[in-house]
Amino acid sequence: MDHWPLRNLVLRTPRLELRPDDDEGLAELADLALDGVHPPDRMPFGVDWTDAPRDRLGVNTLQFHWGQRAALSPQRWTVNFLVRRDGRVIGTQGLGAVDFPVLREVSSGSWLGLRHQGGGLGTEMRAAVVMFAFDHLGAVAARSSAFNDNLASHAVSRKLGYRPDGTFRQVRRGEPAEQTRLLVTPEWFRRPDWTLEVSGVTACLPMLTGREPAD
């Protein structure tokens, strides 16, 4: 028995490879975070994690991912895929769910190292996990959200067919800021013109969907 089948899960796009986080890859991710994720005068995240002092940012990155990995269950899970291009970690793409066996909805969040942004990779990696959720997990909806001034994230959502689904406010760096909720279903999803390659999914289904794979 493989006690952690997620180690064998792989999603492949034309330019990228996505695998659930592992400790060696997380060390690369922490170094990437230290190199910069966004301009210092902006904050695209609902949690101001990149504002941590440099001597804490790497440790915090590792501990956050370890905590989410340890808490994974069919009732509440987040799989943080490390995104690699040409064998090097360039960012992370998260896919999560609450009560997936009943609701069959997922949510996503991601970031790329600053020097890897602007080339369409954010769209490619989000498309990968949405296709994975719809085609392999049986999800009926995928959700996201972004601050209204996060134009890059909203552009990705539009390209993939997400629609606005309300707003909410939260504190960002001590000030109120508004986020827009976004929703896409299999019917609305604008599929890219490439095919996602997936391997190692069958053994992961009980962990993510709460059900055994069909014979």
Automatic annotation (TrEMBL):
<feature type="domain" description="N-acetyltransferase">
    <location>
        <begin position="16"/>
        <end position="187"/>
    </location>
</feature>
<keyword id="KW-0808">Transferase</keyword>
<dbReference type="InterPro" id="IPR016181">
    <property type="entry name" value="Acyl_CoA_acyltransferase"/>
</dbReference>
<keyword id="KW-0012">Acyltransferase</keyword>
<dbReference type="GO" id="GO:0016746">
    <property type="term" value="F:acyltransferase activity"/>
</dbReference>
<protein>
    <submittedName>
        <fullName>GNAT family N-acetyltransferase</fullName>
        <ecNumber>2.3.-.-</ecNumber>
    </submittedName>
</protein>
<dbReference type="InterPro" id="IPR051908">
    <property type="entry name" value="Ribosomal_N-acetyltransferase"/>
</dbReference>
<dbReference type="Pfam" id="PF13302">
    <property type="entry name" value="Acetyltransf_3"/>
</dbReference>
<dbReference type="InterPro" id="IPR000182">
    <property type="entry name" value="GNAT_dom"/>
</dbReference>
